[in-house]
Amino acid sequence: MKMNPVSLEIFKNRFSSIAEEMGITLARTAFSPNIKERRDFSCAVFNQNGEMIAQASHIPVHLGSMPMSVQAAVENHSLNRGDMIMLNDPFKGGTHLPDITMVAPVFLSGDDPQFYVANRAHHADVGGMSSGSMPLSTSIFQEGVIIPPVRIVNKGKIDEQLMKLFLNNVRTPFEREGDFSAQIMANMTGVRRIRELVRKHEFKLVDFYARELIAYSEKMTRETIRKIPDGTYSFEDVMDDDGFGNENIRIKVTVVIEGDRATVDFTESDPQVKGSVNAVYAITLSAVLYVFRSLMKEDVPTNTGCLRPIRVKTRKGTIVDARFPAAVSGGNVETSQRIVDAVLGALSKAIPDRVPAAGQGTMNNISIGGMDKRTRKPFAYYETLAGGMGACGRGSGESAIHSHMTNTLNTPIEALEYSYPMMVTEYSIRKGSGGKGLFNGGDGVIREIRLLADAEVTVLSERRKNPAYGLFGGEPGKTGRNVIVRNGNVEERPGKFYENLEENDVIRIETPGGGGYGKA
Fold first, then answer.
1. How many CB atoms lie within 10 A of CB 511?
2. Quick one: what percent of the chain has pLDDT higher than 70?
3. CA separation for the pair 348, 474 (Å, rounded)
4. d(Cα 322, Cα 140) in Å, to the nearest integer?
5. How far is residue 338's CA from residue 465's CA, in Å, rounded to a whole number?
6. For residue 183, what are the β-bridge partners?
7. pLDDT digit string (tens) for 263-298?
8. Residue 448 belongs to what domain range?
9. Is the pTM of this model over 0.70?
């Protein structure tokens, strides 16, 4: 069968639209503001070998790790029509415990699936030692319920006993059950749309163009790498700390470009640490894929082909490839950002006109949980906060934006105050926080919340000590700042902290600015 470029473009959009529609279904039917409002999820379509054909434009940190979840599901189960597999184990295809993945097979004929669909959503609480399940932990066992690949839907029926077991171990079971139902419906949407596609075009043609799309993405990735000068480029950056006394945790990368192939070597990075900023291999893979995907000017589908020309080397037991049972809740959200900063820093030496200065380098995770006096039920709020993007050779960085490994929206003030016992007393751009230069880094934001009930608060944030670097004479961005206001007293807090606060206490997060580019 000969590939037709017009048909390839049509199928590219058909597969992408299926993943996008899955996301629309998930957002519209979810219960939690984190999924419904912030869109903290990803949806994708896979072929019969578990290779990703297309992912919707959702969360970059899920790019390279979603296929691992599908492979884990397939390897651990013989799937039937109407089945779905659920998992969140970071050491078996997941990222961190709040990210729960649902995988569904697509049967067209015969006894084997011809496609798979999957979605991953960040649940605002999955148990663990603190509300929001993003704790200052020292072991994964403290972070929540660990779910290996298990069959949550069996031939179209939800396993009620398994669901009850999970819901009995979380703080907000009603909300969790609603989000699970939304994930199931999203996969059902994907299964239905793929069947419709095959009915219209027949499996042989659909499968052919699915493989051609993967080959096309591989080809375009190779072309992108080929335009980078051959050579060896190294860079290192640091995590501020792990919350338990380990500071300036080094991430060192060496990028080797040889023709149309790239080797990205992290083996000289520091060993894994006590706190929760350890990243599993899937996170590192996703971060590398994101960087190279971002270098492509063409509208290329994000799929398995993008990774084929790239080799990612790590060393087990390091900050970028942690061993079980390391604490990993912050690796997905914080260390992933620093991996991107390190890889971009290395590539800035090869293609300085195409790489920006460092962005804010953190997701500024804030989790708040307690008892809502209005409903007399527990609540669990989770959000990541925007900041400044790094400037580049073509202009200043964007302000107040989620950048790099996160692609979420914010929680609107109205939705936050309606859903939780909180009042937003300030939400503004943090003027002057971007680094100065020929082009300035973007500014961060200020998010100030007054608690209307006693609550426990956990903050996992970075760039409170080490600012986002500038490039080629540009100044670094301003570091972030975490503050508690209690009885009129302003109290500084570190980048990572857990604290029990009382009604009317205020938590204020000032997010970092991006680095500047070039001398002013």
1. 30
2. 100
3. 13
4. 11
5. 14
6. none
7. 999 999 999 999 999 999 999 999 999 999 999 988
8. 356-520
9. yes
The proportion of the chain whose per-residue pLDDT surpasses 90, expressed as a percent, equals: 93
Residue 1, exposed/middle/buried by CB under 10 A (0-12, 13-18, 19+)?
Answer: exposed
H-helix or E-strand spanning residue 501: strand 496-501
Mean of per-residue pLDDT scores for the chain: 96
Q: In one letter, which amino acid is 176?
A: R
User: Angle between the 281-294 and 203-226 helix axes, to the nearest 10 degrees?
Assistant: 80
Task: Answer for the pair 307, 358: CB distance below 8 angstroms, yes or no.
Answer: no
Of 197, 216, 235, the position where a domain reaches its end is 216
Average pLDDT over residues 241-245: 97
Residue 42 lies in a domain: yes
Q: Is residue 404 part of a domain?
A: yes
Instruction: Residue count of the chain, please give it.
Output: 520
Each residue of 177-196: pLDDT tens digit? Answer: 999 999 999 999 999 999 99
pLDDT for 7 equals 95
Residue 504, helix vs strand vs coil: coil
**474 within a domain of the structure (yes/no):** yes
Determine the pLDDT at residue 66.
87
Both tokens assigned to 208: 């052919």
CA-to-CA separations, 497 to 135, 145, 155, 410, 493, in angstroms, rounded = 9, 22, 44, 22, 7
Predicted confidence at residue 84, as pLDDT, reads: 98
Domain boundary among 153, 187, 216: 216
User: How much is the CA Rg of the chain, to the nearest whole Å?
Assistant: 22
> Where are any strands of DSSP class E within 67-210?
84-87, 99-106, 115-122, 150-154, 157-158
Looking at the 3D structure of the chain, how many domains does it have?
Answer: 2
130 belongs to a structural domain: yes
